Amino acid sequence: MFETVGRNLWAKIHFNKKGVATEVSLEEYDFEKDVHGLKKKLGKLVIVGS
Questions:
Q1: CA 20 to 30 Å from 13, out of 3, 19, 25, 38?
Q2: Is the dihedral of CA 48, 1, 29, 26 positive or negative?
Q3: Handedness of CA 28, 32, 38, 42 (dihedral sign)
Q4: What's the pTM?
Q5: Alpha carbons within 13 A on the beta-carbon side of 46
């Protein structure tokens, strides 16, 4: 169950005016609606490693 749910979770980090993180929350993201265009953005990520 965790593996399925985990694929739709993302972290939202809120910063104050000084750039300090004040709140971190995990939210489930609805990829069917994809209001932020994350499918396209995540598809452009390049994995760099050894």
A1: 3
A2: negative
A3: positive
A4: 0.42
A5: 1
pLDDT tens-digit map of 24-36: 888 887 878 887 7
Q: Quick one: 29 exposed, middle or buried, by C-beta within 10 A (0-12, 13-18, 19+)?
A: middle
Q: Which residue has the tokens 């979770």?
A: 9
Instruction: Read off the amino acid at residue 4.
Output: T
Q: List all residues 6 or more positions away from 15 whose beta carbon is below 8 Å from its beta carbon.
A: 21, 22
How would residue 22 be classed by pLDDT, with cut points 50, 70 and 90?
A: very high
DSSP for 1-50, written as a single string: -HHHHHTTEEEEEEE-TTS-EEEEEEEE--TTT-TT-HHHHHHT------
